[in-house]
Amino acid sequence: MSRAVYAVMGTVLYAALIITTAAFESVLFDRDVISETDAGTLLGPAMFAVAVLVVLLSLLRSAALADAADGDAPTMLGAFPAQPAEPSPRRPGPAGGDGTSAGRDAPPRLLPGAVGTGVAVYLAMLVVGSVGYSLVREGAVWLPLFAARYAVSPLVLGSALWAALVVAGTVAVSRIEPPR
Q1: Which of 30, 49, 90, 109 falls 20 to 30 Å from 68 in CA-CA distance?
Q2: 98 in a structural domain
Q3: The domain containing residue 121 runs over which residues?
Q4: Could you count the other beta carbons within 10 Å of the beta carbon of residue 125?
Q5: In angstroms, how far is the first alpha carbon of the chain from the final one?
């Protein structure tokens, strides 16, 4: 199965997890996940949409890097004038005994990508929420106030944690080669 399919499946899983987490938070705490009544109905979905987009882009980037490291990346050599018609030779690396990389580059590391995605989701949700709420309230003072209020909310923290876990799990699963 293509790594891009794993990326889409991981993104759908992430979307389901954050929606479920928001529903449980609303039921358990008996309040809305965005408690500002004047925020409108689109602020929460906009925050969710940007989080899902960040996870999708992170998983697609990881899939592309892993495919390129394995030599499985789809290419059309010579399709563009600036692109050479011949593939470039492999660069020497430390993996092989003779100074070559033995035909494969190392796949991207798992933990930095997962943690980076979690941080990116956290920041993106706060930025979109702050900008959206400050536009509704028509005042720039609401940018830091909204961000400070939701910086430790279960909605944003849970979404960032789920993002890191889903990216780590999806990338780890996509690296396993099935028997042929």
Answers
A1: 49
A2: no
A3: 3-71+109-175
A4: 29
A5: 12
Describe the crossing of helices 43-70 and 154-175 by its angle, rounded to 10 degrees: 20
Q: Which pairs from 13-18 meet CB under 8 Å and 24+ separation? A: 13/166, 13/170, 14/51, 14/52, 14/55, 14/162, 14/163, 14/166, 15/48, 15/52, 17/162, 17/166, 18/48, 18/51, 18/52, 18/158, 18/159, 18/162
Structure-block tokens of residue 11: 């993104």
Residue 25 to residue 44: CA distance in whole angstroms: 13
* Position 20 in a domain: yes
Contacts for 149 with CB less than 8 Å, ≥ 6 apart: none
Tell me the C-alpha distance between 170 and 12, whole Å.
Answer: 11
Q: What is the pLDDT of residues 43-95, one digit of tens each?
A: 889 999 999 999 999 998 888 877 777 766 655 555 555 444 555 555 554 55
Total domain count, the chain: 1
Q: Which residues, including other chains, have CB under 8 Å from residue 158's CB and lie 6 or more apart? A: 18, 21, 25
**pTM of the entire predicted model:** 0.78
**Token pair listed for 74:** 């789809």
| 93 located within any domain | no
